[in-house]
Amino acid sequence: MKDGFLKVAAAAPEIRVADPAYNAKKVIEKIKEAEALGVKALVFPELCLTGCTCGHLFYQRTLTDAAMEALLRVAEATAGSDMLVVVGLPLACGGKLYSAAAAVCGGEVLGFTARANVRGTVFSALPEGEIEVVDLGGENCCRAGSAIIYSADGAINGLSVAVRFAADRKLAVPPTAALCASGATVIAELSDEPMSVQSRRETLAALEADTKRLHCAAVSAAPGRGESTTDKTYYGLCAVVDDGETLAVSESGSGMAVSETDVFNLCGARIREQTYDGMSCRGADHCFWELEQADTALTRRIKREPFVPDGDLGEFAERCLTIQAEGLIKRMQYTNCWRPVIGVSGGVDSTLVMLACAKAMDLCSLPRKNIVAVTMPCFGTTDRTKNNAITIAEQLGAELRVIPIGESVKKHFETIGHDLNDHSVVFENAQARERTMVLLDIANKVGGLDVGTKDLSEQADGWCTYNGDQISNYDINAGMTKTMVRAVVKYISETTDDAVLAAALHDIWDTPVTPELLPIGEQGELLQKSEDSVGPYILQDFFLYHMVMRGGSPEKVLRLAEIAFEGMFDRETLLFWLKSYCRRFFSQQFKRSASADGPAVMSFTLSPRDGHKMPSDACSALWLEQRMPEK
């Protein structure tokens, strides 16, 4: 179970009502199908061995005895397998009738979990904390309870499977939180819900909300074809949902949903967010399930741009801009400085800041002329970026100032004794610091604020000059990764009614990311590209998400990157930039430790005050020396 991934599945076999022997055959067929796919935890619907529509036939001992015989055949079919199978059946025990979920593995029945919410059914609830002993025939018996957790810590640290019923989600206090507090990371959900016009949407929404809140995975199976259609239709909605994300869905009458849950990520999220701190662990019984160590082939989709949502970006873009604008408005109110001063370069970062500042002025009913857009051409400035910067300022209605800084920088070089032809870090940083000095001084002069343009990705890799673009009065890009910035700028370019602005925005989006600190070519062409030095930002943001935000090891991150960027980057390239990223992320923390204030746009931030915290002199050796397996 390499890197914490567990392959799970939910299946809805086509059954016959009140025919356990036939249904057992269908269940076994699905078990064999799942085994061939490498599934290690398989969930079937509630009352799958009889059908959930038997009504008062459940009172017939003939049916309940046949269901138990069918279960034993299913258990026998798992002999020699380490797959945990959870299947529903009626269980007559201790003078009561339960809708139960049996867990079987390795040819044995491990235990039964009884449904708690039995309103409107023929079944009884098993009181919390009570245990029934179930006779399996001969000298064999096992436990039945309301909370049994099946643990496989030996294979995946933190892997524990608990059972709940879909109906139990409707209780005032559903059992899921208590199960997760007791250690369950995967919830096997057995459902008896029929198909309705809202059922798919409502079920997936409920599972996504539950798993996000509790940091768990849910494997849910509902009855499919073969159930009685006297009053309702059943179509076998099966789903795998992991930490708020639906990974796989099948609704085909007799299908199977298969994917992989990331147990390490679930455990890490619980630790980071202290999800269950102070929550008492109600008496769940633990049963150990022997799962062999093995690699898990990944089929789940790995997004190339995990910080950017799929589909229409309208709401995403508007909310990003609103967060930035409202953050700036509060700072302007507090300081009584109502003139944003922005260094505009013709790049995506300063362009987004201009758009957000324009929104802030509109929200405050202030003229956009309050915005002071300053472009400061120097040795590395191209006509393309300069012209785009001017166009953006003019189309948004800002006050534009063009202040060449070349002579000032040359004078500074004379002062410190630096050769103009020595294009070292001194050559680059002097320009960045000169620009920051100009912006801060203009802000003082006009009674405004220098609004920073450095984004979250640049904070992470340190691609900014200390006391240059690293600092400002207020940094509204601080919560935005480069891929997020590009996505918002592209969205505005495609939706604005201003054709001139749209053309400039599109060209800016299409311009290579550059600090423009090294001289341009003889034909005026751009020679310095940020991604040549620090790596493609699509990779940087991928590493940031999976390694820093989610806590994945470099080995795991490389594995995910190989899947996500197949056909785009080879393994050697990915490994090179991953190691580079690890080095830079550690070595550049000193810049983040002195970051300006700025609003978080998502739950993750690198703010040294309430975001990711680390010392400026932490050692990166553990990450850099991690051995990467051969392909």
Automatic annotation (TrEMBL):
**Gene3D superfamilies on file:** Carbon-nitrogen hydrolase (3.60.110.10), Glutamine-dependent NAD+ synthetase, C-terminal domain (1.10.10.1140), HUPs (3.40.50.620)
Q: Which residues form the CN hydrolase domain?
A: 6-263
Keyword ATP-binding in record = yes
GO molecular function term, any single one = glutaminase activity
Tell me the keywords, alphabetical order. ATP-binding, Ligase, NAD, Nucleotide-binding
Q: In which pathway does it act?
A: Cofactor biosynthesis; NAD(+) biosynthesis; NAD(+) from deamido-NAD(+) (L-Gln route): step 1/1
Q: Output the superkingdom of the source species.
A: Bacteria
The EC number on file is 6.3.5.1
Tell me what reaction this enzyme catalyses: deamido-NAD(+) + L-glutamine + ATP + H2O = L-glutamate + AMP + diphosphate + NAD(+) + H(+)
GO CC, sorted alphabetically, is:
cytoplasm
Q: Could you provide one GO biological process annotation from this protein's UniProt record?
A: NAD+ biosynthetic process
Look at the named UniProt entry and state the broad enzyme category this protein falls under.
ligase
Matches recorded under Pfam families: CN_hydrolase, NAD_synthase
Among NCBIfam families, the record links this protein to: nadE, PRK02628.1
Query: What family does this chain come from, according to its entry?
Result: Belongs to the NAD synthetase family.
Its recorded name reads Glutamine-dependent NAD(+) synthetase
List the taxonomic lineage.
Bacteria, Bacillati, Bacillota, Clostridia, Eubacteriales
